[in-house]
Design brief:
This protein is 15% helix and 43% strand. The protein is α+β, with helices and mostly antiparallel strands and 190 residues long. The chain starts with a helix and ends with a helix.
Length: 190
């Protein structure tokens, strides 16, 4: 092999190695088994939101959920992966507690008949591992209700006249958190 061919081969090898490093540097993580979702409370699809919830959606996977996948009487991130975040665009009354507009983490302590629901001001935390009660801004208790089976954990809003509920549902369990929006204009449009 002559020197000219060796130089071409060496150049080609350098190009391949450089591109190999570049391609590997651009790899992405695989899709999460519990994807994130967003739930909004809006007066309609084109208006600004009143409340936004960002949460992970774990699946039942043929397992008993509460008391098994999610233990009773222990702090839960209320979803999967990162802790669930709730953004109130307006002041609200959260189960009887006045909450100023802002972003909070939503934790729960599931029980068989009643859940404790907690809003925390400690943001950007992984799961419930970093839960610290000194950051609690609200802690309420709500009863457990039963309904049709849901495969994946879900959060939605239910509004009737002047009453709004944030509904948490998974398996056959439903938790309804009462909310009052401190804005007559927003309430009139719901």
């Amino acid at each position: 092999m002559n020197t000219r061919n060796l130089k071409k081969l060496a150049l080609l090898l350098v190009i391949v190695l450089f591109n190999y490093e570049f391609i590997n540097a651009q790899s992405f993580d695989p899709i999460d088994k519990a994807p994130h979702d967003i739930s909004y409370l809006r007066t309609n699809r084109v208006t600004k939101p009143i409340i936004k919830v960002i949460y992970g959606r774990p699946s039942k996977n043929k397992q008993e959920v509460f008391g098994n996948q999610v233990p009773y009487n222990k702090i839960w991130r209320t979803g999967a992966n990162e802790a669930t975040e709730v953004k109130f665009y307006k002041d609200v009354v959260f189960g009887g507690v006045n909450i100023p507009s802002g972003t909070y983490v939503l934790y729960t302590i599931p029980g068989e008949d009643e859940w404790e629901v907690i809003l925390s001001s400690n943001l950007d935390v992984l799961g419930s591992f970093q839960y610290n009660p000194t950051f609690d801004v609200a802690r309420i208790s709500v009863p457990v209700a039963k309904a049709e089976m849901l495969e994946s954990f879900s959060i939605a809003f239910k509004t009737k006249k002047e009453t709004t509920q944030m509904v948490l549902g998974w398996d056959t369990t439903r938790i309804k958190i009462p909310l009052t929006i401190n804005n007559e204009e927003a309430l009139a449009q719901l």
